[in-house]
Amino acid sequence: MTASSLRIRALRKTGLWLLSASLALFALTACGKDESAGSSKDTTTVNIAINGGLNLLTIAKKKGWFEEAFEKANAKVQWNEFQSSVPLLEGLVSDRVDFSFIGDGTVVTGKAANSPFTVISVTGVQGNQNSVIVKPDSPIQSIADLKGKQIAVAKGSSGHIFLIKALQKNGLSESDVKIVQLQPDEANPAFQAGQVDAWGIWDPFVTTEVSAGRARIVESVQTMGFVAPAVMIGRDKFLKEHPDLTALYLKVYQQAVDWVAQNPDEAADILATEKKMDKALVKTLIENTQYINDPITAETAEAIQSTADILLESGTIKEKLDVSKVYDNSYFEASKK
What is the pTM of this model? Predict the structure, then answer.
């Protein structure tokens, strides 16, 4: 064999070795990338939104219960906070909200606007003390007296829906009053300064203003005998992609419901600190609130359907809404397993 042939064979052997080494290195690198990508892909962000007021999500956030539970499921929590339901639903449309709670009126107006959410449990039936309040010395004594008056309200909120229902029950409509669109942080100083005649609002604002002697209640969901469910909602795409995390979310929320019932003093401490409110007032609010986490019953669905029919009649929504299509109890049932 010539020297030239030996060199060619050596190069071939060397080339094959380099090719094998390159392929092995590529395989290892690809494997590493796949593992890294898989790890990143499997970590899910759960966007939880606090929708104003004194609520159990504020306590759960402080306690870290959701973070603890979701970490075990390879998920992380992102918190957001909104003052009322309308901006919250905007956040849901932009994928910044996966779970939160809203009132029955917002369920109706939201679904009428094709908001992508489903009701997954009931968190209350008292309407969070939705009321119409006025200054203590106001001549307004009844809903009928509101005719021609300026009323501050966050449009689309549960307070707004209560106002529509209260007006309708007294033979009036929104066109008979002057609605002043204000979020709670804007309406509060406007009300105290006498820039509006009345305020359609919910707790803790109602109890805070009344307890401070700055307001009195004209009518509330309780005095008018309205059933006003508050419900937990989930973003549709998240629910379909992560039914297991949805069930886990409801399981943790149930933990919060149970804990508050057993620890009202500590709950009052947390909420008073977080909301910068008087602890005694907060404790009163907690005692007057029935926190629940229940499936959607026929009675609840009927109450929401009644709201939908009233809002259709008032012209707030344009088409009849079938409430049976907006809730799903399967996630709640899974949370109990």
Answer: 0.78
